[in-house]
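User: Can you fold this complex?
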Amino acid sequence: MTFTGLIGKICLYPLQLIIRACVAMGIHPNVLTFIGVLINAAAAIALARGRFIAAGVIMLVANIFDFIDGKVAHESNAVSAFGGFWDSVIDRFSDLALFLGLIYLYSSLQRTEYVLITALAMMFTIMTSYTRARAESLIKKCKVGFMERPERIVLFMIGAFTNRMAAVMWVILVLSVFTVADRIIYTYRELRDTRPEEAIA
Amino acid sequence: MKPSTPWRILWNAFFWTYERATWQYDVMVIAILAFVWLTPPDWLGDPMATGRGPIGWLIDTFLH
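Assistant: Here's the predicted assembly.
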């Protein structure tokens, strides 16, 4: 078993207890998604105030909600097309909130270069999601590139807990740029080999 | 012409197609964590963290 696979398995055990509790209480997964974004907004406020440890703890709680909503939907037979759409949209708000918190912090410290780096990381984060969503309206699957939401969220938490947010912003920015480029190139190659009438739309 | 191994490694790292929980994913995670934790905050001009970090400490200890 790989190192990251082992960590995933260890984390899954307490999460499964929470999932079962949510299913038993009959909590709708869309409500869990919404609670997640509200808690992420609180994390963004903590980031904006430079309280990284508090932000890390709040992000941890918020992302439990983010993680379990889909599983709760599955286990309670509440999977719906709208649920998937709602989850994706709310996730973007959560992403943007965290970046905005950091932008506020860096601008209040008058660190223009980090305002720019964070803003660029935010831009390429949104483009990462957009390129995949748009590509998958044309081709079957576009799951390439490293920097997806789970990686980003874990990095945000590592940055907050260990006070290394600047390095984390650099990593998110550089790998998001490559992820977006990767998705554009992959979609181009897939469509080049597909006749127009075979494309999905 | 076949690309050289370092070039291929870099290409595969940036134009990523591996799944999570593979050994390639582990290597990438370790590389990222090494960058985040070992790079001296001063080198990056980190607005919140200060000091030179583990690499700075090693340089100070062994090279000065």
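Chain B is about 65% helix and 0% strand. The first helix of chain B runs from residue 5 to 14.
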